[in-house]
Amino acid sequence: MQLPFKEIPIKCLSLVLIFLLPFRLFAQKPTIDVDFNKEIAPMKPVWSWFGYDEPNYTYMKDGKKLLTQLAATSKNPVYVRTHSLLVTGDGIPDLKWGSTNAYTEDANGNPIYNFKIIDKIFDSYVSRGMKPLVQIGFMPEALSTHPQPYKHHWKPGDPYKDIITGWAYPPKDYNKWRTLVYEWAKHSIERYGKKEVESWYWEVWNEPNGDYWKGTQEEFFKLYDYAADGLKQALPTARIGGPNIAGTRGKTAQQWLNNFIEHCTNGINYATGKKGAPLEAILFHAKGSPKFVNGYVKMNMAAQLNDIYTGFKIAASYPNTKNLPIIIGESDPEGCAACGMATNPENAYRNGTAYSSYTAAVFARKYMLADLTKVNFLGAVSWAFEFENQPWFFGFRDLATNGVEKPVLNVFRMFGQMGNMRLAVQGNRMYELDDMLKSSVSGEQSDIGALATKSEKSIAIMTWNYHDDDKKSNSETLKLRVNNLPSTKAMMSIYLIDSKNSNSYEVWKAMGSPGKPTQAQINTLKKSAKLKCVQKKMVDITGGEISVPVELERQAVALIKLDW
């Protein structure tokens, strides 16, 4: 017998409501509300930092083209970090390999300095108004305590440990190591001028808590002290930091970062015998953890965000570091840029819009974490550049393939159009930061959120429809509402990255995925790769308010800009 509604037991009714709740939430039409008057903090260009393993790609054809494009994304100088600036070799690049031959020795063990290749690299940056984040590493063959084998021959699919050779070992002579850094810094001042070099950041090595360093923790601190001393002898006002650890959320990595800060604050300096070591910036890495499951890629932003949150909290916990600039030396959806999707199917997200939407959504949360911990967040290095003369859309973590930009690069072009002050955002479908830290975007509903900024006579709002599961889903129409605008009219521009817009990858697939595109096809790909404005018109603003519908596919990113 069916009971009247009023006679259904409360316990049963509660179960029904709990069961229906996720479906009701999912059915909510997404809305974003932005108030022009609700300021949060300045919009630091933390996104305008990039890096890569292979330094010799810098001055090659497609490398120079991409540097020009990256420099054009930002009104502020773009910083660039690269590995292997002191590695011995002929300057011919390979995957996860580069060399400059900056240091060799004669038959009597006397140093020979040759900065010609480093100059080609840094000239490429400085001539475009870019700044090096100078990595002091790795170990020249003549200085290595374990020089052989030295050059590796790694390829995608090989064990990652195969890249670790003689360049990863401590120096046999720390005084020669110090003098090498001194001569390099002195040469840089002579070539670029003191004021220019003062605007750079310097750091020692890469991921010393992992495979990249074959010495002990104490030996790394010694390496750092001698390098910093050589740098400061050449330029006392130079800025140096570290330690660029990997897996920051892990217990061992946290010990490394804490011990490094303690050493720089209170330890005995190996190079000078005095207390402490120079420390003008804190650096660490943050990586996500995608998986390939049931025929599609499932991203995991929580891993990356927890690396960042951990590093921020540690830096904030020390009086001497809580106000120092923080640079996330590598900040990416996963760890190996040169591991293509053929050998690592979990990396198949890289060519399409999942990489774009992930990038938009994760940078918004980086700003939130900086606000929460009140740290001096300066930059996050996207470890992505280009791979010269490699197969088209091979699935490397890069920003362009064979000179054609991928969709993700257009997110950085969007960032470059945003204002200098961040605004509060309210969204009924935007995941809370706590939820992102716990489980990323793994529920039924996607993360439809926004990052909003303003300038004196404009407002720019980046929106996205992101989900960890990189598979197709229905488009949704976002209702964007902006109020307290100080104008009655504005020019509205809407830029879009999705399967049909600002997307060279989908165009390439529609061509039949050619391994050797014709020139006509390349021209089409280049055109399709640009950031596309899908709507531009004058709009009325009534009572300081405007409502804009924005259709977003899953993994789409849009920038809505109002200028008056």
UniProtKB/TrEMBL annotation:
Pfam families (UniProt xref): Glyco_hydro_39 (PF01229)
Stretches assigned to the Glycosyl hydrolases family 39 N-terminal catalytic domain: 32-537
Keyword Lyase: no
Coiled coil: none
Keywords: Glycosidase, Hydrolase
Top-level taxon: Bacteria
InterPro entries registered for this protein in UniProt: GH, GH39_cat, Glyco_hydro_39, Glycosyl_Hydrolase_39
UniProt keyword Hydrolase present: yes
UniProt-annotated catalytic positions: E207
Alphabetized GO MF terms: hydrolase activity, hydrolyzing O-glycosyl compounds
BP terms from Gene Ontology: carbohydrate metabolic process
Family as reported in the entry's similarity comment: Belongs to the glycosyl hydrolase 39 family.
Protein name from the UniProt record: Beta-xylosidase
